[in-house]
Predict the 3D structure of the following.
Amino acid sequence: MTAAASSVGVPVPPPPRRAGRIGRTVRHYLPALAVLVTMIGLWELLIRIYQVRAFILPAPSAIWAALVDNWGAGRWPLFVSAQTTLFEAVGGLIIGTTVGVVIAFAVARWANARDAVLPFAVAANAIPIIAIAPIFNAWFGVTNPLSKMMIAALLVFFPVMINVTRGLTQVEPSAIELMRSYAASEWTILRKVRLPNALPYFLTALKVATTLSLIGAIVGEYFGGSSTVIGRVVVQSASALRFDVTWAAILLAAVTGITFYMAVVALERVLIPWHSSVRGEEPG
Amino acid sequence: MTAPEAPVVRISGIDKQFQAGGDVITTALSGIDLEIGRGEFVSLIGPSGCGKSTLLRLIGDLTAPTAGTVEVNGKPAHAARMGREYGMVFQAPVLFEWRSVEDNVKLPLELLGMSRSDRDTRAREMLDLVELGDFARHHPPQLSGGMQQRVAIARALALQPAILLMDEPFGALDEMTRERMNSEVLRIWQQTGTTVVFVTHSIPEAVFLSTRVVVMSARPGRITAVVDVPLPQPRNDETREDARYFRVVTEVREALRAGGGLGGEPALASDERLAAEGGIG
């Protein structure tokens, strides 16, 4: 088509330039950005008009000031706290994901393993995390970051295990028949079919796990331990009626969570560029 | 064809039973004997539940017979499968979306342990054969259903198999695409000289493609007739308007009716129909 068109002198449209792509990206995010700016403006305005007291809701400007003032020093050093909490969350994510993946492989491979392990996995998932957190603090040492990691790991384990098991087992039966018609061994089928098939499932679980691991770490922190962590800053600043600092800590926790999540999204783009979840997200 | 040579497929005395749960045993195939010569194009046709797909899987050693033997190229089907002598095409293309079109075609070559450069050459040949050379770097979801099925055919032929097994490969395509794919398969069959066993529901498709049509009946699945198709090669759109073509179509239809395959009732899955019959009695 293109060749025919150019041969009769019709100009072929030039390939999209970089500026055009950036323009599209800006247009894509503009509505969300507009809503955000409007909401913050409205929030600030309403607080000032009605003189809402800070313990109910501080103004965005006050939260921002608290964030800047407490960034590096003082009673509540926010940056170090967020760093420590993230460290606990990442540790928990690694432990929970590793255990989840290993069990998923066993469960996908042997029906016996499924019957033996699944009831306990479901039971572990049913335990309210808030109830088990003090116990884990006692088991692994309340000042030891490992206690927070284990709480995060417990939360992360289940969705990873379930999703990876699904990815390994939910393969088209005719795909297995195809491989068998080529005399492929179970090991080859695992490598060439089940593993790539499970990768999108794994990354979906990992995205959920980033958020869960932060929740686990912060819940663990509520029940004691080092004071330079997000959970302790939230508890202590609130009891000192410094709600501007509390909100700053919450804001920082949210930003940390989003960054963590985006890191996995980036990983997804590298590992499964062929998958519809990645291709569909590309703006334009 | 030259002097009589050993058949590519020799099926003798096949019975196949399934344990449907508990003590219920369903007989899918009973007393099947069939020989398929080198370079033949044989279609298996019959009503739902006649076991034609099961018969195809028995030839491909994807399921084992309850009794009887299947030989392919003079050896047991299992040995033929281990020797990678089969190409398979299913109703769904079964392409892996994490592989490009080209890499999908290379999959069997990788399993064989072929060198990288040989794989490249062979994959290119195969894609040219199905006229998809320009789409080598595309990913399967970017292709239409008919194109995906052509990739599946290229993959099935990549190992230059002794026998190509096709299980209703065009059942999911629209009528226009299906007719185009039929011509395509005939061209490829003539170009490669591969022996083909083709399962289908469609009488015109079976007659247009085949040198022989094997007509089967259900419960238990048996071969009720084998119809020769004396239409000249190469076949093309004119073949579909040939009086002899219609004569063979009629012959196959009558053979199906005689076997109870075209009773006028809607075709039910075999289990449903068994249950229905049980309910009446």
Observations:
- The interface with chain B takes residues 172, 174-175, 177-178, 180-184, 188, 192-193, 196, 199, 272, 274-276 of chain A (CB under 8 Å).
